Automatic annotation (TrEMBL):
Main location: mitochondrion
UniProt KW keywords: Membrane, Mitochondrion, Mitochondrion inner membrane, Transmembrane, Transmembrane helix
Protein known as: Mitochondrial inner membrane organizing system protein 1-like
Region (Disordered): 77-96
Organism this protein belongs to: Pyrus ussuriensis x Pyrus communis
């Protein structure tokens, strides 16, 4: 028997978007935490400073994943529109 599955277009497939966001968040969190740990191991001697560099790396990873996910869910525009600059016309005779 054939399955009666509805085919959902990619822009409306919320489950696929959530899967992509969770995958991206976990990857960026882990990779940036490892990068922070490696950098902290090379640069700092204090355990508190090393943990701070791990936390900073983890924050960078989660923040960048949040930005990408908000673009994926179309929550914010990719770039804000540039403001239009209107020049004032030259003053006419008799006006100051």
């Amino acid at each position: 028997m054939a399955d009666n599955k509805e085919i959902i277009p990619p822009p409306y497939d919320v489950n696929a978007k959530w899967d992509a966001c969770l995958d991206l968040t976990v990857r960026r969190f882990v990779y940036s935490s490892l990068g922070g740990a490696f950098g902290g191991f090379l640069l700092f001697r204090s355990p508190a400073s090393r943990w701070a560099s791990v936390a900073f790396g983890a924050g960078l990873g989660i923040g960048s994943a949040y930005t990408e996910c908000s673009h994926l869910f179309e929550g914010s525009p990719a770039k804000p529109a540039a403001p239009k600059i209107v020049e004032n016309p030259a003053p006419q005779d008799g006006q100051d």
